[in-house]
Amino acid sequence: MTDTNALSADFRKYDQVEKAHTYRLAEHESDEFDQHYEIATLDIGPFLHGEAEDKARFANAFASALEEIGFAVLVGHGVDPALYDEVDEQVLELFETTSLQDKMRFAAERHGSVAQGYFPMEHTSEIHPDLVEGWVWCRRAFDVPQQREVPFRAEDYWPRAEFEGGFRRLVLAHEQLFKPIAQAMLQGLGCDPHLLDAKLTGTNFGLRLNYYPPMSEEQERSGAGRLLGHEDVDLFTLLPAARVDGLQVWNHRSGKWVRLSPPRGSLIINTGDYMQRISNDRLPSTTHRVGKPSDASHRERPRVSFATNVYLWEDEVLEVLPGLGEPKYPPIKAITFHTRSTAKFYGDDYAVETA
Questions:
Q1: Which of 66, 55, 45, 33 is nearest to 269 (CA)?
Q2: Residue (of 208, 229, 212, 213) closest to 4 by Cα position
Q3: pLDDT at 1
Q4: Quick one: which H or E segment has residue 56?
Q5: Are 110 and 346 contacting, i.e. CB atoms less than 8 angstroms apart?
Q6: Distance CA 244, CA 262 (A)
Q7: Quick one: which of 233, 249, 318 has its CA closest to 278?
Q8: What is the extent of the structural domain holding 275?
Q9: Nearest alpha carbon to residue 146 among 203, 89, 99
């Protein structure tokens, strides 16, 4: 786990959708940046509250932006920016006041499709020493409606039970957006917008918190990245704009990286491998990473982010949606698809094969 020069092509056997380009996983001095390209910022308010024409206009713009680069920035989504500010502070408190010993009580392991729990520095992936601590909680770690075999106990998942309630507010706010976002994507593709409604009712999700401590001079010289280049293995991701920049997106048309600086309170949306598969490659799963912020603040202050990854339950079948042409991919169970893909990060024995 020490190869700071690793290339994406070295791990292509794990890809479950077409990914033709090759990139270095960590930011490098030879990287080129597209200074002129702007990822679309769109107001989803008219889709949430407007008439049929308003919905169609947004859906077409949204799908076009995602087809172009796999990313869009949404405003007008209805989540109070103050909630994001509160969560930002809660992430700092969680990582900075919890001892490593206590964190390791919740060391990440696979449950269903998803590796859930705490990831220490340099352990997000087995292939690259990225400079971030991560923590992933899926639906079972929250006191929200779901089927359970045993009563919910926050202490089974959280170092302090009170953290669950604060982060639950975030996941409940985002869950209300799962169906509208999917409906807009599908309508923009010319599909029945409600094709995924049933699968997104009470579906699984992952809340991933990222904590990037200030980088030392030694770490900066090492060539390690803050978070390696990757594509999300999900339907789509909701990522509130961070206070500290650093998010970089690969523009496959120019072959350059694009730095994102979205407005406060906005939501960054990107489509993942599940969506690329079922959209028959119409909506790409786009490479992104976290590099050093443009103002060099990585030497002095931490950076946090908190992404909600939208999954499907393990027994659901991923298949190309009707109306999108001759399928390029055969149907596959979500657990097989997901774990074959993420075995790239966790080792070949992570993959779960099903009949």
A1: 66
A2: 229
A3: 45
A4: helix 52-69
A5: yes
A6: 11
A7: 318
A8: 8-347
A9: 203
162 CB contacts (<8 Å, ≥6 apart)? none
Tell how far CA 86 is from the center of its chain.
20
Strand 256-259 relative to strand 133-138, pairing: unpaired
Query: Exposed (0-12), middle (13-18) or buried (19+): which is 220, by Cβ within 10 Å?
Result: middle
**165 falls in which pLDDT band (50, 70, 90)?**
very high
State pTM to two decimals. 0.95
**DSSP H or E segment with residue 101:** helix 100-104
pLDDT at residue 293 tops 90: no
| DSSP code at position 241 | P
DSSP 205-235: EEEEEEEEPPPPHHHHHHT--SEEEE--SSS
Question: Looking at this protein, which amino acid is placed at residue 208?
Answer: R
Q: Classify residue 141: in a domain, yes or no.
A: yes
Tell whether 353 is covered by a domain.
no
Residue 1 lies inside a defined structural domain of this protein: no
Residue 262 in contact with residue 268, Cβ under 8 Å?
yes
Instruction: Compute the distance between CA of residue 223 and CA of residue 30 in angstroms, rounded to an integer.
Output: 12
Residue type, 253: R
Q: Using the 8-state DSSP alphabet, how is residue 117 labeled?
A: E
In total, how many domains does the chain have? 1
CA pair distance 286, 200, nearest whole angstrom? 22
188 closest CA partner among 37, 68, 268: 68
Query: How far is Cα 47 from Cα 44, in angstroms, rounded to an integer?
Result: 5
Residue 320 gets which letter from DSSP? P
What are the pLDDT digits (tens) for 110-121? 999 999 999 998
**CATH code of 35's domain:** 2.60.120.330
* CB neighbourhood size of 44 (10 A): 23
Q: Which among 61, 58, 64, 56 has a CA at the least distance from the CA of 44?
A: 58
* 161-to-103, 158, 191 alpha-carbon distances in Å: 14, 6, 43
216-222, long-range: CB within 8 Å, 24+ apart, which pairs? 217/299, 219/131, 220/292, 220/298, 220/299, 222/4, 222/129
Closest CA to 130 of 224, 12, 255, 267: 224
Secondary structure element (H or E) that encloses residue 271, with its range = strand 267-271
Confidence of residue 355 (pLDDT cuts 50, 70, 90): low
Residue 2 lies in a domain: no
